[in-house]
Automatic annotation (TrEMBL):
Presence of keyword Transferase: no
The protein's name in its UniProt record: Quinoprotein dehydrogenase-associated SoxYZ-like carrier
Domain Ig-like SoxY, chain residue ranges per copy: 37-147
Presence of keyword tRNA processing: no
Signal peptide: 1-25
Pfam families the UniProt entry points to: SoxY, SoxZ
InterPro entries: Fuse-rel_SoxYZ (IPR030831), Ig-like_fold (IPR013783), Ig_E-set (IPR014756), SoxY (IPR032711), SoxY_sf (IPR038162), SoxZ_dom (IPR014880)
Domain Sulphur oxidation protein SoxZ positions: 174-265
Length: 272
């Protein structure tokens, strides 16, 4: 037996320690248990794999505009409904990205938006159902620097578009028979995170973002959002819902400076 052969067990043991310690450290540093306590008052979390789906790219092309889709996985025969969905980006500076309240009669089954991701992180979707229970699903995303990335538009351009809204509808084959609609709301707003730096003054730009959004068909609630700094510049929501026959679709948004933006559209003639 050579000297190196005799040392192989020791080398293997040391390598095992080297690979185990970072994993243990990462597990010990997992922010999720603390977030469950802070955001959800330590309520019990049930497996949401059959309740709520969350889709995001494993490796984001642009950490400042990472697409995310939340999708109900409840079967039509399930008597429960999703009341709200909370999107948590665990390692972001402000982890709660958004909370979506779903209209009782709107049957919203899918929501897509764009978010900032600041570090490699788990992202959780927590659905609260009409049975009062919480159900959680998660994905892992590789992205970094999204919350501090410079804005895509300069201050003057952003100001000129502040609060401007667009509403679009998308054709669905089953729409006529089921009254299912797919729509999109876009809001012009810088949604400054507070972590971005002005490239001229080298000073941090104060946080300034849309923190409330309410969507209704006539006066019947469809979807509302409580947003945070993780929602990307120019907030964009695409979603499905069931039409109640209303002729007008309405949107009201508020931001952290107290601005209120309102608009409404003819359901049959969506646009600017």
């Amino acid at each position: 037996m050579t000297r190196w052969t005799r040392r192989l067990p020791l080398i293997a043991a040391l390598l095992g320690i080297a690979f185990t310690l970072p994993a243990q450290a990462e597990e010990a540093d997992d922010p999720w248990p603390g977030l469950v306590q802070d955001i959800f008052n330590n309520r019990a979390m049930n497996d949401g794999s059959a309740v709520i789906g969350i889709e995001m790219p494993y490796r984001a092309e642009d950490a400042a505009i990472v697409p995310v889709t939340l999708r109900s996985k409840l079967s039509p025969a399930d008597g429960r409904r999703i009341r709200s969905i909370t999107l948590v980006i665990d390692r972001n500076p402000a982890p709660m990205a958004a909370k979506f309240e779903l209209g009782a009669d709107a049957n919203v089954t899918e929501i897509s938006t764009r978010v900032r991701v600041n570090n490699y992180t788990d992202v959780h979707a927590v659905a609260e159902l009409s049975d009062g229970q919480l159900y959680v699903s998660k994905v892992y995303v590789k992205a970094s620097g999204g919350c501090s990335a410079p804005a895509g538009k300069n201050a003057e351009e952003a100001q000129s578009r502040l609060g401007k809204m667009r509403y679009r509808q998308f054709a669905r084959e089953e729409a006529q028979a089921s009254r299912i609609r797919e729509a999109q709301i876009m809001i012009g707003h810088p949604n400054n995170s507070g972590l971005q730096m002005d490239q001229v003054t080298q000073l941090y730009i104060p946080a300034f973002f849309v923190n409330q959004l309410k969507l209704t068909q006539d006066d019947s609630p469809v979807l509302s959002m409580e947003g945070g700094i993780s929602i990307s510049e120019d907030p964009n929501l695409r979603f499905t819902y069931v039409s109640n026959g209303a002729k007008r679709f309405r949107a009201e948004a508020k931001d952290t400076d107290g601005h209120v933006f309102r608009n409404e559209w003819d359901v049959e003639k969506p646009g600017t």
